[in-house]
Write a structure and sequence with these properties.
Blueprint: H1 2-20, H2 27-38, H3 40-45, H4 48-72
Length: about 80
């Protein structure tokens, strides 16, 4: 439970940091954080090794999808930011 929560907190913090720096909104990272919390069920029911593997796949998939969308130009800067 703590492992999945830690990964979710890290990925959420990363998304919030990128948003604060106006790098852009990161829906893939937020989605990965939410799915990471669900992965804790795998750790409780199957094994911790399976949870680690699943968390690795979740974070890697989010980064790959984000990279591909950035290459296509789909990721845009946050729209609700105020220029100083």
């Amino acid at each position: 439970m703590a492992l999945a929560s830690g990964v979710a907190l890290f990925v959420s913090g990363s998304a919030a940091f990128r948003r604060a720096l106006r790098i852009g909104t990161q829906p893939y990272r937020v989605t990965a954080a939410a799915v990471s919390l669900v992965a804790s069920v795998v750790g409780l029911t199957v094994s911790v090794a399976a949870e680690i593997a699943l968390l690795t796949v979740i974070v890697a998939a989010a980064l790959v999808v984000e990279d591909r969308s950035r290459a296509r130009g789909d990721v845009r800067p946050a729209a609700d930011t105020v220029d100083a």
